Amino acid sequence: MIGTGSLVDPTLGLVLALGQVPADIPEGFATIATFRAQDVTRQLRLIISASFAIPIFLGVTLGFWAVRGQPPIVQLGLLAFTAGILLTVVVEEIVPEAHEADEGRFAALAFVGGFALFGFIAVYLG
C-alpha cells in the first residue's frame, strides 16, 4: 500500500508510512521483549528486528514497480482494495477482541486515538 500510495502521490506514500509507525513501535517492543524472555542473545535480537524491515521494503518496491505506468483507475482501485482488506481485519478481528478484555474502555480509546492520530498526520502533511 505504501508503494502504490507513493506512486499516486509521494506525499500520500509518506503519510501512509508515517501512519504505520505508531503501530510498529509497540509491536517491535513486544517482539523484542518476547525474544529477551526466551533468552535470545542481544545480537540475534537485533538481527531479527532488522530483518522485519525486509518484507516492508520488498512490498514497497514491488508495489511501486508493479503499478507504475498503470492507469489511475488501476492505482486507485488497488489502494481502495487494500484499504478495504485492512478495514475488514480491524472490524472482524481487532474490535471484538478489544471488547473481550477488562480494559475495554482503554482499548477503545487507544483505537480511536490511533485513528485520530493518523487523521491528524494525513491532514497536516496532506
Cα-based radius of gyration, to the nearest Å: 17 Å
Distance between the ends = 17 Å
Percent of residues in helices: over 70%
User: What structural class should be given to the helix and strand makeup?
Assistant: mainly alpha
Return the domain count.
1
**Helix and strand sequence:** HHHHHH
Could you give a quick summary of the protein structure above?
The protein is an all-alpha fold.
For the structure shown, list the relevant keywords:
126 residues, mainly alpha, 6 helices, single chain
What does this structure look like?
The protein has 126 residues and is an all-alpha fold. It has one domain (2-125). It is built from six helices and no strands. It has helices at 2-8, 10-37, 42-51, 53-67, 72-100, 104-125. α2 (10-37) packs antiparallel against α6 (104-125). The radius of gyration is 17 Å and the shape is globular. The mean pLDDT is 80.
What's the SSE blueprint?
Elements: H1 2-8, H2 10-37, H3 42-51, H4 53-67, H5 72-100, H6 104-125
Helix pairs in contact: 1-2, 1-4, 1-5, 2-6, 5-6
